[in-house]
Amino acid sequence: MKVAITSQNRKSITGHAGKCRKFWIFDIENNEVANKELLELPIEQSFHSSSPFTPHPLDSINVLITGGMGNGLVQRLAAKGIQGIVTSEIDLDQAISALLAGTLKHEADKPHEHHHS
Question: Is 66 within the bounds of a domain?
Fold first, then answer.
């Protein structure tokens, strides 16, 4: 299983997944973390700036954990078979541990206001 976590500051779970360009990618094998690496995307590959109809570097993940995302991204992920989880947890390792234990709390998706240019 592959899990991506939004981490614009590279240290903790951050929100606004659509504009995020830095993701920690966790490879999970036998319910344990086998590998963890940082993926940094150019701005044109952020979810907000890229097309949902073209291949994306995060298409191979199974789960996206974030502090916040809009309904459009939730639907975009679901269309590719990716589970989106919005959490108030900010610690990366705590979130992964909770996910593996089945105890990661899924918060209500937080609506956000922004303008598309």
Answer: yes
